[in-house]
Amino acid sequence: MYQALLTRKYLTRKIMPMLAMVAVMLSVATILVTWSVMGGFLKTLIESGRTLVGDVAIVWPNVGFGYYDELMEDLEADPMIAAATPSIETFGLIQLPDDRIELVSIKGVDPSSYSAVTGFGDTLWWKPIDGPTPKDHDGEDLRLQDENQDLMERVYNNGLRMMRENPATGIDEPAGVLGVEVTGLNYRTPWGGYEPWIGNRARPDGGIDRVELFMPNNGTVGLTVLSLDSNGRPVDPKTITMPIANEFQSGIYEVDQQTIMVPLDVLQRMLRLDAAQRVELVRDDENPFAVEEDPVTGEIRPKMREEIGLDPARVTTVLVNGAEGYELEAVRTRVQEIYTEFASRHKGEVPSAFDMKRQVKTWEDLNRTMISAVKKETGLVLFIFGIVSFTTVFLVLAIFWSMASEKTKDIGILRALGASTPGIAWLWIRYGAAIGIVGSVLGTAMGYWIVSDINAIHDWIGRTTGLVIWDPQQYYFIEIPSDVDPQKALIVFVVGVLTCVLGALLPAWHSARMDPVKALRFE
Amino acid sequence: MGTEDRAQTETGGVATAAASILSVRDVHKTYKLGRVKVPVLHGVDIDVRPGEWVTILGASGSGKSTLLHLMGGLDRPDKNEGQRASIKFEGTELTKQSKRALDRYRADDVGFVFQFYHLLPELSVVQNVCIGAMILHGRIGYMRQRQGTIERATKLLERFGLGHRLKHRPMELSGGERQRVAIARALINDPKLLLADEPTGNLDLKTGQSILDTMIEYRERAGLTMVMVTHDERIAERADRVIRLVDGRVEGVPDSSIMGSEHPPA
Ligand SMILES: Nc1ncnc2c1ncn2[C@@H]1O[C@H](COP(=O)(O)OP(=O)(O)OP(=O)(O)O)[C@@H](O)[C@H]1O
Ligand SMILES: [Mg+2]
After folding, report:
1. Domain enclosing residue A182, as ranges
2. pLDDT of the residue at B7
3. Which residue lies with its CA nearest to atom 5 of ligand 1?
4. Domain count, chain A
5. Where a domain ends, among A366, A398, A433?
6. Around Cβ A512, how many Cβ atoms within 10 Å?
7. Residue range A355-375, pLDDT digits in tens
């Protein structure tokens, strides 16, 4: 009882507990803000990594596998699977409008089914938008301007179809969709948007051209790939010129900076993965003893006969989107089962189910390195929190120690009046808990407030002090994530309270064990 | 202390102990300051009868406060070879009690008035008085009799002339007023034994006398046993009995005469 009374009095009458409370409040708020923002970024990052992948992928790199139409039919017939799309992933060289040559990852996709499986349509950057992006306070976004609406509508459609009209002929031609950071010619605005490049280009004759380059309008790139024959051996390199239909932003810088998507059939042709006649020389078994002259070497060989077959078109990847309500792993297992059946129908023509076992991957598997990096980062953050909390424990301990020493005489008096050792210890622990609870409540509230208004606060700091901490021009996410996970808030709150109790333990123990006579004589 | 304990010692204990509420035998106390030993008490024997008012006189530093602390179970006597230190309250041997039992003894049976008031600065006057009851009864017990306790505290304070000071804090009171609050606090649990360490030491004669009058009046109504330390011969004169501490011993009176003497309470 006296503990409650004294806790209250000590809390309200002294400056020290106020300081302790503020310390707790600030650490709780800091931890909550850091954790929420960090967690928000990591979540956005992982989600972005998922955008262009779908749920499950069947991957057979380089040579790919045929009969994928049939496989997709099988897949889409299954209730657990919503949609499937074929694609090819390979590497090649890209020649940019300013003649730089870079290594890119080239994805051949079938735009309509690809949109159904992934968030492809949403990642297209150049499209009409309803309102300004969060940091675009003055509505400077080109996509918003009235005079650009027709253009945006057109290039958006082009992007979705992966086609662009050739102005000379008036015919739609297959076109690529470029990662928005690939060319380096899109200027990233301070509010986190893009503006096409307008600039000067040196002419060989010493003159200067003023160029306005909006890739979806008039940009083309050169693409070079090394095609492989059906045995996976490299054949001659092949180069094409490809108009650009649109540009995409997936949210993962590495992807947006080195990926180009091209129509599937174009890439199939370039890589010789398209359907083709297959001419094979086989021994003529009508007359096993007949011989003929080899037309190439001129040597005599057993008589051969040309057999003509059809090599089906191939893809390296089939992306699958699970139906709503199914677990990722369940979908993966189902896809595997469907593939097994498919492979048994095409024995010898497609990779066997056994070989494919490890090649049916979830989006998490595909982004494993990124996710594990994210996890490591989370671990690091938690470690730092640990240290911060630890510091707070010592802070509280120091403050409590000094308060308990200051109150030595009170303790002596209480002991003389019959207060027990545990009673005194409880007084301080209670006191610590009270400071912890008040500090943590305030800190959690403060953290909540800061996180939910973090962008407004950040803008305000930017306006008043000119200090821009989160610069959308440099960072890839325009906004600072502003969601507080209630579970995290609860953890931080509880840890805050425990920290104070922990910090109060030693002074409590010390104070309780003190000889009451000495305490009374304490001046 | 439980009645069972008492019954036990009355039949089996020292005969003289039965007559006294508090009996101190052969108590030694030495303080240790690092390696230096400061002997303070060298074999103190005192008997106090129920309802008796005993004053202890002695020079400064003679160990009066120390003795009071020992009587109140706040400290323990030395445990040396060949000495049989014993402090009995109502027949119960305090030196053999657990810490917890001593806490209980202080809360329930003893009222302490300290030399230097020792009020809790954060609490109001009433709260300072009630704190003893809070400690004694614990949370639930106190909540049940909270109103009664506050009323009793108020009445006590009114009797000490502090009725208008209930909500004040100790800082705002004069020395005499503070001492009266400290006395009221010591009395809130209706103790059997009041241990007062120079309750009037810091006060002028008149204030001191008036405080003393209130205490005497209370003692007579409640049948309280009082052991009071003082420097002041004039106060000592009013007591039932005066004990002088000299050189860590009770002076003049041979042990046997204390034990055998029959001082009727005033
Ligand atoms: N904790 C301690 N350590 C060492 N010596 C102590 C301690 N407490 C008391 N003393 C010594 O014991 C002696 C008796 O102290 P005590 O306070 O009992 O005296 P007192 O008779 O009450 O004096 P006063 O009349 O001045 O109050 C003093 O000499 C003091 O210095
Ligand atoms: Mg003294």
Report:
1. 54-275+312-366
2. 38
3. B31
4. 2
5. A366
6. 21
7. 888 899 999 888 888 888 877
> Distance between CA B170 and CA B177 in Å, rounded?
9
Contacts of residue A413 in chain B, CB cutoff 8 Å? 114, 118-120
Q: Spell out the domains of chain B, with CATH numbers in brackets.
A: 22-250 (3.40.50.300)
Tokens of A12: 């309200």
- The radius of gyration of chain A from alpha carbons, rounded to an integer in Å, stands at 34
CA distance A17 to chain B (A): 14
A465 and A378 in a common domain: yes
Nearest to B103 among A6, A10, A419 (CB): A419
Higher pLDDT, B249 or A334: A334
Q: Tell me the nearest-neighbour CA distance from B148 into chain A, angstroms.
A: 16
Predicted model pTM: 0.73
- The predicted complex's ipTM stands at 0.84
Q: pLDDT tens for residues B20-60? A: 889 988 888 998 888 888 888 988 889 999 989 999 998 88
Q: Of the residues A324, A341, A366, which one is the last residue of a structural domain?
A: A366
Residue A299: inside a domain: no
Nearest to A417 among B69, B122, B132 (CB): B132
Q: For the segment A64-106, what is each residue's pLDDT rounded down to a tens digit? A: 899 999 999 999 999 999 999 999 999 999 999 888 899 999 9
Ligand 1 pocket member B66 (CB < 6 A) = yes
- Confidence band for B105, pLDDT divided at 50, 70 and 90: very high
3-class SS of residue A201: strand
pLDDT tens figures, A249-262:
988 888 899 999 99
pLDDT at B263: 46
The response to whether residue B116 sits with its C-beta less than 6 Å from ligand 1 reads: no
Q: What is the mean pLDDT of chain B?
A: 82
Q: In whole angstroms, what is the distance from residue A252 CA to residue A268 CA?
A: 26
Q: Is B9 in the pocket of ligand 1 (CB under 6 A)?
A: no
pLDDT at position B225? 92
Tell me, yes or no, whether A60 and A132 share the same domain.
yes
In 3D, which of B109, B127, B108, B111 has the Cα closest to residue B119? Answer: B127
Is the same domain home to A17 and A115?
no
- Which residue would you say has higher pLDDT here, B186 or A5? B186
